[in-house]
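Progress note, sequence design subtask.
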């Protein structure tokens, strides 16, 4: 082979190699796929704003409204998986809600048993109101600082005043998992 033929063949080889590299880079920049799965796609995450609104709509009752729900912002979409959000109610109660992904932007919401707590001051006011309606006005109720909501469980608080009609203790139960006090259950 002559010297000029070797240079031409070598030049063509370098040109072909450069074209192959350029095509490879172009293919990578546009995203490649392997078996139909995109390698550059980020995993889809749950729309936390949609879930938070769903919690407000679904977990509010006629007597207690969810005023705030806060969910994590980085939950991957995965049918059947669950995650937890914090919930605040208009009666001052706070708790946790379990969210289950059903697929296609559909979810179920459920309060975690034992996670909802009502401030004692909220319970004090509700029980005092109930006692006044039962003929024991001006009662002073003193409940624990935080009360874990358990439907059907009796809560006992101290009571005084009420013009001598009520003293000692008062008991009540919650009518729902959101922390609504069953006024018919209030007994001295």
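Output:
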């Amino acid at each position: 082979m002559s010297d000029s033929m070797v240079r031409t063949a070598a030049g063509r080889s370098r040109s072909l190699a450069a074209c192959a590299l350029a095509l490879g880079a172009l293919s990578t920049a546009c995203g490649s796929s392997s078996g139909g799965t995109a390698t550059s796609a980020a995993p889809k995450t749950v729309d936390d704003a949609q879930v938070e609104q769903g919690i407000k709509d679904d977990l509010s009752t006629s007597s207690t409204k969810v005023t705030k729900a806060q969910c994590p912002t980085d939950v991957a979409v995965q049918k059947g998986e669950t995650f937890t959000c914090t919930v605040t109610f208009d009666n001052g109660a706070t708790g946790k809600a379990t969210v289950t992904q059903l697929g296609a932007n559909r979810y179920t919401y459920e309060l975690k048993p034992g996670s909802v707590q009502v401030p004692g001051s909220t319970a004090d006011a509700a029980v005092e109101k109930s006692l006044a309606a039962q003929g024991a006005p001006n009662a002073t109720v003193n409940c624990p600082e935080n009360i874990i909501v358990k439907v059907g469980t009796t809560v006992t608080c101290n009571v005084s005043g009420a013009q001598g009609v009520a003293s000692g203790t008062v008991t009540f139960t919650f009518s729902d998992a959101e922390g609504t006090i069953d006024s018919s259950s209030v007994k001295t």
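The chain has a mean pLDDT of 82. Work on this subtask will continue into the next period as scheduled.
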